[in-house]
Amino acid sequence: MVSIPIALEGQRHEVIVGAGASSEAPALAAGRDRVAILADRRVAALHGPLIDGASTLEVDAGEPLKSMDGLAQVLDFCAAAGLSRGSLLVAYGGGTVGDLGGLAASLFKRGLDVLQVPTTLLAQVDASVGGKTAINLPAGKNLAGSFHQPAGVLCDTALLATLSDAEFSSGLGEVIKTSIIGGEAALGQTEELMGSLIERDPRALTAVVEACVRVKAQVVVSDPEERGPRRALNLGHTFAHAIESAAGYGAVPHGVAVGVGLGLAARAAEATCGAPSELTERTVLLLERAGLPSSLGALRGVYGLEERLTPAALRAGLAHDKKGAVGAPEFVLARGAGDVIMGQPLDEDLLAELLA
Amino acid sequence: MVSIPIALEGQRHEVIVGAGASSEAPALAAGRDRVAILADRRVAALHGPLIDGASTLEVDAGEPLKSMDGLAQVLDFCAAAGLSRGSLLVAYGGGTVGDLGGLAASLFKRGLDVLQVPTTLLAQVDASVGGKTAINLPAGKNLAGSFHQPAGVLCDTALLATLSDAEFSSGLGEVIKTSIIGGEAALGQTEELMGSLIERDPRALTAVVEACVRVKAQVVVSDPEERGPRRALNLGHTFAHAIESAAGYGAVPHGVAVGVGLGLAARAAEATCGAPSELTERTVLLLERAGLPSSLGALRGVYGLEERLTPAALRAGLAHDKKGAVGAPEFVLARGAGDVIMGQPLDEDLLAELLA
């Protein structure tokens, strides 16, 4: 197991990565006046309780959980569990559980500590670092949330063994994104290990999750509130959010949408800022090896979403981009491995070609 | 008009106090890509729109507004108004509008700026400084919220002319509390000006609001996240929250409950930590001059709440104190003007006597 220290917003915590990392939970919860757990029902059934005797709210993971109703349910649970500001809330599940649990923790009594125990590959490499929390609004995904750094993060790679192939592949979409942002060393390692990753080799998983956490931590520490460099992490995400919006939230797994977004961003970078075609090819090959669609055409076919993922619906989805100014979606593009640029405008002709 | 600079959590903003301060709103909103206003319907009808052409959501002020449903409504309004992270949300109303607007602003797209334009005396002297936001949960008042410093605060004392006598008196409860915390100079000024305050003399109002803002700012700046000294501001509040909880939220105005809380805290301070009886007498006299009950007996009579404000219900309400550890309410007591102590335990016999 490795421990990666993260110092953010005057706080310091550790991300522990490795097979068996979740067994550290009881030690991290020791000394708290109360401990409560928000758990994915399926994860709790497969892997058992994290901490004996803690009040637990089991929920059905997924995008519908990230709603105002879901938030109300968790806040009421915190009240019923009698949590004080010195208590600990544990979020035990994938990204939706972590996002909701983190938001509830940031709000209950104006803020209590949260221990994140992400149980999907997507959440371990992405949601676990940076302290972003969110729920969806009827108007769009992740439209309400906070920045709330966790008291600790346990990325137990042994838990990934029980993920479905679809969930696992979705996580590989974020792995590929983070590797491109990280630079040649990270991208090369992911290319080298992709065969072992697909077989869920524990050592390969730990190496890649660790590398992704380090890349993300480096970017996030430089910009905790996402006002500048942190936006690099949105590589492919403006397209991905448009896809998820047009498909209906939850219809396309986030990492799958990110994968297609990476393919589109690579083509956009080639067309507008001189990115080499080799980077597009490496991206597409990695996506294919990971079992992910790399184009809208492939995505539409795989998910039977031809009627929803129309160019017009996707263009409308882009207009809702949360990070840009009103009406101006912000694209993040890679000119090379480790060379990400932000704020690139794309003209309507190119957008039409990409979204066709 | 006076301008009081407040530097908190790496941000700096000004609190502008005086008759006509709200006319500064258009200038403060200039340069934003979008501006939206959350307005108390009654205030908007009496005093007109703050900023011409801004999207406005008019709401009925009051404790029921501070709910998950109210929060959902304001967040959906922010989305419908097309706000970006660079936009401005204006909270134009009393404390409930400010608390809800501030919370929605802190959450929408993980945080946009809020301009607070408090329109009640209570909100001008209390809620306007410190960046606390909140909604109520079924389990208790202000149980979910955030710390979100405003981009600016406009305390327009001319707006106080249209408050009902009950609303105005309630605000005087917080004025008296803040004056005791501030020390002999602040307390003496409030005693000197109480006659003019009751007549809503604009100069007296501006002087007292300014003094209260300065006292509160001084305490808050030393402890933005309320981990230590800021708890001094909760003088009388543990009792007040128990009263509001037992009465049913909204049945007793907050400042009225605080007034009774000050009376109880003064008696507790006399009994346990050597506070002079003179301070209790000054407190009670100020409350009476302000038209506020200073004892539970008087409160029960005025509001006809004999059946709800029973000793047992009040004792149960104390157990829900948000600031203390599990099950241990934290009392804040004044040993003298400007000499506030925290963490004082009160034994059950004394509590029984106070709550009788």
What features would you describe in this structure?
Two copies of one chain form a homodimer. Chain A is an alpha/beta fold and about 350 residues long. Chain A has two domains: about 160 residues, Rossmann fold, CATH 3.40.50.1970; about 170 residues, Dehydroquinate synthase-like - alpha domain (Dehydroquinate synthase-like, alpha domain), CATH 1.20.1090. In chain A, the strands form three sheets. A seven-stranded mixed β-sheet of chain A has the order 1-2-9-6-5-3-4. In chain A, helix 3 crosses helix 4, helix 9 packs across helix 13 and helix 10 crosses helix 14. The longest helix of chain A is centred in the middle third of the chain and has 20 residues. The mean pLDDT of chain A is about 95.
Q: What brief labels describe this structure?
A:
seven-stranded mixed sheet; 14 helices; homodimer; 2 domains; Rossmann fold; Dehydroquinate synthase-like, alpha domain; 356 residues; alpha/beta; 47% helix; two-stranded antiparallel ribbon
